[in-house]
Amino acid sequence: MDKQNAQQTGSEARPVLEGPDIARVLTRIAHEIVERAKGADDVVLLGIPTRGVFLARRLAAKLEQITERKVPVGSLDITMYRDDLRMHPPRALARTEIPGDGIDGRLVVLVDDVLFSGRTIRAALDALNDIGRPRAVQLAVLVDRGHRELPIRADYVGKNLPTSLRETVKVLLAEEDGRDTVLLGAKRTAQ
Amino acid sequence: MSKILIRGAKVLGGEPRDVLIDGGTITQVGTGLSGEGAEVVEAAGRVLLPGLVDLHTHLREPGREDSETVLTGTRAAASGGYTNVFAMANTFPVADTAGVVEQVWRLGQESGYCDVQPIGAVTVGLEGRKLAELGAMHESAAGVTVFSDDGKCVHDAVIMRRALEYVKAFGGVVAQHAQEPRLTEGAEMNEGVVSAQLGLGGWPAVAEESVIARDVLLAEHVGSRVHICHLSTAGSVEIVRWAKSRGIDVTAEVTPHHLLLTDELVRTYNPVYKVNPPLRTERDVMALREALADGTIDIVATDHAPHPHEDKDCEWAAAAMGMVGLETALSVVQETMVDTGLLDWAGVADRMSFEPARIGRATGHGRPVSAGEPANLTLVDTAYRGLVDPAGFASRSRNTPYEGRELPGRVTHTWLRGKATLVDGKLT
Amino acid sequence: MQRHLISAADLTRDDAVLILDTAEEMARVADRPIKKLPTLRGRTVVNLFFEDSTRTRISFEAAEKRLSADVINFTAKGSSVSKGESLKDTAQTLEAMGVDAVVIRHGASGAPYRLATSGWIDAHVINAGDGTHQHPTQALLDAFTMRRRLVGRDAGLGQDLSGRRITIVGDVLHSRVARSNVDLLHTLGAEVTLVAPPTLLPVGVGSWPCEVSYDLDSTLTKSDAVMMLRVQRERMNAAFFPTEREYSRRYGLDGERMARMPGHAIVMHPGPMVRGMEITADVADSDRCTVIEQVTNGVSIRMAVLYLLLGGNEPAVTHARTTEEK
Question: With respect to CATH, is domain C136-291 assigned 3.40.50.1370?
């Protein structure tokens, strides 16, 4: 197993967002999207597996409540576009599901749980490039923990969370983990 | 030639004895013999055997000197404890005339490590169609008594019958490589469970057994003796056993590798295990051991088949068949027959010296270790155990299936007519 | 997974399911406007074909190119191989040019195994068919086709072929496809029956993890998939069967026989088909026959194998779930 994944969130991890907080910030992001996209009628939400997909679906539900229109939502697996492929054994692939009408000429909002180095989003932009030509691409994240390594920024941020590199941020979602919470903990040193 | 005293050796595995050699002859066998004026070889704990005789060796000269020559082959023989080897006829040119067999015989004389008795081809060019000049080869300086198309089967029943009959005139014997050619087209390994999985062409046991059955019946019909090369199957053993019980004059040999190795090894696709006849199953191995122990199989013969590295460092289908064996034969026999309790050392002397010499009508070899006999002797450290390292072989080729395998026993000394060819494991 | 893919028998159930699941994702790339992934950019793969096989070579080549690998095609014809250069020298020459993986098709059983294990080269070795031994990617694409048809595209994810009854008919003796399929289908939990005249079954087939029958009609009615193997007309000359007519009457699949198969059952063929011998034209052209799908699926399977062997710093670790952590 690779170094990054060997570093588990320590047992002393503390919650920085709880279930109601997550629901509230998603609602706020949904409103921001409607506002900035002027009604959001050409928005396509693409979640980045695994947890970005659940967040995208929740956002879509909220957008539908606000706009009373169906909002296309899908997923974008970036595994094969990662720049660290050669540093680990190959990973199992996740599903890329592009909504039926595609992304050409649309406003694509990428959705992920944590924005960190920016490399995942760089890979996602490459992946998008092979799928179509959106009108514009925006980024929504639940947590921005800083430490960018690429010139990438989020358009919608649930919570800015200043962290040190010795800390880890872990997002747990009910769909995958049985509960909603964001944990901040100390990195366990790799063996 | 000076005197040599071998002190305290277990002659044929029996009680310790001193053996005194003077010139080319054993002059005394007893206890407490004086070593005065003699070179003394302390042999306590070791086993003294008559010099081994191999009825089935490929020396490759003339024609394939890149894999072996008479000189390197006889050096390998001396290393393995042999004092006499029978050189197979499948050289280039084929040993099917008096000229070629005399050449091989003369090279053997010159080597000085081991007597070389050429085997003559049964048919011209080993092609199975026309009898070679068997009589001329017998009357040549080489004095050929054993005839074989080994590598190929004398598959035509009429040619085989004629050959069996013809050699009676001068006491010769035909050594048959039993392999029905049509049943073995495209054959690459023993046909069975393993070949089915590996997708390698099957070599059925019946291809060997059917030829042996035919030939023992032919030998009976024409009143000749017949020798069967390298038996490899339990079925072949049964046929030879039946033939002997009927009084048919048949003798048979088994190779060391068929006493130890099975076709499971082919799963590695390593061509070092590619050999003709192919490695068979565990059941066959056990039947061969038992048959060698009870005398159904008369002798052990190496089928020493040297091949250059490139002929084995390739894919299975492209590889040559055969393995070297002179330098490991006695160790494999100790492992499979002596250490298992199937045969004592007197039995080993019988299967590896007395009987092969008798079948091949070798003179001066395969004689008892007693006063007045030629001093062809082999001294074995039977307590030794070590890993087989082909880098130390005297043979020009390294295609041994035993590389890295631990085997018992080590030949320390070999004497050819009183002259040491091997001393403390080193060739002289 | 191991470093090389030599035999279907080397795959565990989890390895095989991972390959099938990965292939299912790879298949979706074919539906996109740009059918290309950057995954193997900078990796060099040589297709080393000592035997003519245009369809297998093209399938591998398509897979390699969709993953952005650099591809070198080497066919024995007109090369130094025909001048007596050995497999070892050829492979070492290619590796000296910086090859990361060798896809090898060879007429000699065991040649890929030798290439992978004899220390001649360091590259990954993928067996694209060796003699009458193995053709693992064919078995994988067959299993993929069966899973899609019998279990379902999405429903099949993570699933094996437990309890499915697969019948393989024809020249088993000379077939690397049959050997690979028996091994893989057994690993995936399917029940395999081989049907052939006794002359076209290897001695020792009794040790294989499958049933053997000489009677096609009695097995057809309880088969979920029937795979017809190619039967070369030349086999007749070696007395494996008397005539083409007798073979096709006893072991060929025609419309009447196909009608007796269960309604959901499919007909498969690794190609190339010998119409009129093992399969009639109406069966070959029916929508129950998956031969074209198998070709399409072959590219997805080979992409999956290439990705899982070469995509990372070492071959995929079966069922290593990456934890999401940032």
Answer: yes
